[in-house]
Amino acid sequence: MKNKRRHTKNIFRRRVIATLLLCVIIFSLIATITVLLGYAESKQAFQKYANSIALQIEQRLYEVDTVSSSLVALHHSATSLNASELGQFSREMIKNYPHIYSIEFVLPVSREERPRFEEEMRDEGYAGFSIRELDSEGNWRRAAERELYLPIVFMEPLRPETTQNLGFDLLSDQRTRKAVLYAIDSGNTGITNPLELVQGGAALIVVRAAYKGRVKPESVEQRRRQLAGLYELLVVPKLLLQNIDTGIDKQEISRFVLRHSRFSASNPKGVLYSEKTGRLPLGAKLLPSLSLSVVMPSLGGKLALDFDKQLSMLNLNLHLILLELLFFAVVYYLLLNTLRQRLHRDLEREKAEDEIFREKERAEVTLHSIADGVITTDVMGKVEYLNELAERITGKTCGEAIGKHVSSLISIIDEGTNLPLACPVSRVLASEKVVKLTRNIVIGRSGGRKFAVDLTVSPIHNRAGKVIGAVMVFHDVSTERNLAREMAYQATHDVLTGLYNRREFEAHIKQSLVRRQGGLSIDTVCYMDLDQFKVVNDTSGHIAGDELLRQLAALLKSRLRESDILARLGGDEFGLLLFDCNVKQAITIAESIRKLVKGFRFYWDEKTFEVGISIGLVEITPEIGSVSDVLKAADSACYLAKDKGRNRVYIFQPDDRELTVRHGEMQWLHRIQRAFEENRFYLVQQKITPLFDPTATSHSEILLRMLDEDGKTVPPMAFIPAAERYDIMYTLDKWVISKSLEIINKNKDDRTVYNINISGQSLCNEMFYKFLVDAVDKMHINPARICFEVTETAAIGNLVSAMKLMLKLKEAGCLFALDDFGSGLSSFAYLRDLPVDFLKIDGAFVRNMVDDTIDAAMVEAINHIGHIMGIRTIAEFVEDDAIIGKLHNLGVDYVQGYGIESPQMWFNAEQAGVS
Amino acid sequence: MWLLPWICNALSCGWRKFILFPGVVEMRVAIVLLFSILVFSDAALAARCLFVSSYHRGYAWSDGVERGVRKVLDGKCELRQLDMDTKRNKSEEYIRNKALEVKHLIDSWKPDVVIAADDNAAKYVIVPYYRDSNIPFVFCGINWSVDEYGFPYKNVTGMVEVAPVRQLFENIETIRTKIHRIVYIGADTLTEKKNFARFNKVADKYNYQIRKELVSSTAEWLAVFKNAQSSDVVVLGSNSGIPDWDAESVKRYVKTHIKTLVITNHEWMMPYAIFGMTKIPDEQGEWAALSALKILEGLKPSAIAIVPNRKWDMYINKSLLKVTTITMPETLLLKSKLIGNEE
Fold first, then answer.
1. Does A125 contact B151 at a Cβ distance shorter than 8 Å?
2. Fewer CB near the terminus (10 Å): N or C of chain B?
């Protein structure tokens, strides 16, 4: 690329040089023509100028000659011409002809006349006047003796610097002598060579003789003899050039030479005046000069003017050349600019090509690198390109695939139907619209591996918008789909057992309801709850419990039809939806399940567990409105099965009274919650009296009571079961304990031990544990005044939690009583592990012990075992003296019941004003 | 002196700061200094010219000379004038004191050139104090000859004042054919004596008998004038030096008693003469000034020859001509300025 760019720049340089050369050549040609034209024009103008100057100089010289003639004529015509008059005339002449520097009069003086003449001049005021001459060094001296002197006696204007010339003998100087003698002898105008008589410049002396008499003497002899004087005019050649109007700047004349043939004898070139005029501008000498010579007759000879004109830039049209240069510079600049733009375009194009190449490379590399398969086709659907992933999927390399129709490379299959789909490329090329296939699409070569993909096919347009091909992009979504399947499975199945979960079970019930409402089938739901499962869990741990559940699930599933829906609803509860199965058939199945479970033995850590199962049956009828109703009914039936002794099947009947009660319990939930909100709970206490030791501390059990909406007291057995079933016992326990401790704290002098009940639910509630420990900690009384009562069933059912709480509170000093002992199925072995202080013998045994010997034996056995284990006993339901007497005989420590004291009001929220 | 604060300011603010870091004040100082240098250099270059007049302002001749001097020198040099006033103060002592005053001025002021107008300035200043000195002198208005002063000196040049006596005589011969006796009337002054001498010299060439009558008062002048009417020509010299000159009464007297041809060389005497060829005092002043300028330009005084004046004017007093029987030739009437026409 760099070489290409260098090549382009070299071409540009060559073009620039060629353009420059072309401009230079054309400019040179035009410049040469311009210079030649300027030269010719200047020469012509200068010729005209030179002629004009020559004519004017000749005219001025002629004027000088005329003035000299006029002076002579005046001399001849005037009767008396004194200095004043001559001065007046001269001033007028000089005024009119300013190139005449001065007019002088020369008087011929003979040697004899000289003394008198000089005396007279001095007498006239010319102090120190004498006829003088210049010595060889240019100093004035008295003129040497000679026959004739021609001294200057008058000059106009008289200037201080020229007064020295007064008395100058023209015959004494070779330079003037010849002209003077010529003028005398010829009677014509004599002209001297330029003399330095004028301060600041040379002057020509034009001299003309005046003779005595009015007619010019004929012969030379006579002229010399009759000489009256000479009029001489000083002409400064420089002044000849002054004020000459030629229309051309005189500054342009670099050399001016005035020649006259009359001077050629003394001066080979006859140069009258020569000067270099015109101040040459800087660099003008570099330009050629123009020389001209004009010759014309003047003053009896030939006047020649030589000019050297230093041609200026203007003369040679150099200003035009500059303009031309500027023009060509502009043209060159424009051409250069064009070339630059072209170079710029070329470079830009190359850059763009580079960019395109790079982009293509980048695109190809990118396409090779991305996780999507990409296949591009032409407008016919034939492959033009496929990336690495596409190569892997199609099993073809790019080289092999190019030119083949895309449909021959891959097949697209609907995963759901496993049927092949038409290749969407043709459809995209025809419709010019993007096609996306994202559901259940798999692609692959025939006989090869299939890939779950999301497929997008897009048309490729050119700049004009015309379709030139298509690009197929397929994204491998195998992982996502597997994950989605897994998630769907997990959403519908129980992780532990692999059975359906509650949601999926409900969904199936819903479908069944729909079918049933459509009269299509009769389905039955079984609600199954394991018996004694908690025992396994508590004794062997959750892992054992989980394993039990897994094994039972597998066992149950193996005995059911494929179409039946078996689900784990939570904990040890299972649901079974039997399709196309009425109640009769369902009972059979349920019984077989019950027997199966009963006969199942679970082995764990060398222990063998026997569990049972309580089953509630509900036939889905059109009368049952919702899934919730079905489950409630089944649950209620299961409850009753369990309530009736477990390990049995109970069939739901809509008019079943027991079920109505069970249903009523559910109503209690709302009533309890409202009673709480309306402070309709209160506490009563029932005394527990020692039978033998009057000094022993008496106890008092705190009992919870609730007022109904009409203000009537509701017995505990009416709302406690509902509270237990619906998990709000924790709330009730917490309230009872808080209020009890609050009251007990206020009566520090009271020595009564208060027994407070704790439900089984609260026992295994971690939050309750924290609450209770915290509440005991904050007590300001002897902890031994508090005795918590836990039922035997609750303690055994939540053995771990119960142990933990008991140990903690025992440690704090509190007492514990095991309530309703004997009613449960616990063995006495548990009693050994539980740190209880009191055993409260179940009232069911006490109530009938007078008449029933078994009950009496049970009371006796329990009392006996308790005493052996160091636990004091309390008999409940002591309603009369006969029972007291019997208990006294048995040695029971404490008695409680209506026979001792009926419950007394202990705390009333409304009365206390407590909310 | 007015520059002193600025210069002090410039010095006090430090030259380095003044030159390298000029502020507004420094710039002002620099401008003023530059301006001052220009002014001083101009003043230094401006030459000093001293014009010493022997007489006083108001005297027609002296005024003419001064006019000529000022016409040329105004603006060319610093011109200072000192009038010795020796026409009205003729005592030797006064003149010598005045000459000393001039000398003191020259010595103190040190002019580059001195123009000395008329005889007393030459006689009492140049000759005794400045012969061949370094101070150049240009004299003018010295009557007829500089011989008595020994000019030229190397530092002295000038213009001699000559009257056109010969030309005057040439012209009166065209008016009167037979001239034998001429009376010259003038003030009894040195100048008039010299003038008379010149007339006498020229008259000799023409074989005229010329008699001088130099007076000191108007009455004497009138008496002499009346007596001179019997001569062929009366030449009026200058009245300068007659203290009680009463122009009007003299004019009336002349008009009453004039009979013969009365001529003069002085313009201011034309009211009392019929024909006059008069010198022009301005020419004297102009020449002296031109010479002074050339000297200032570098020309040595010795390089300028002493020359006489060459201009004069011609007058005819028609009012007096009318009261006589004299006939004026046509050529003179055409060439001369006519005065007295108003009468």
1. no
2. N
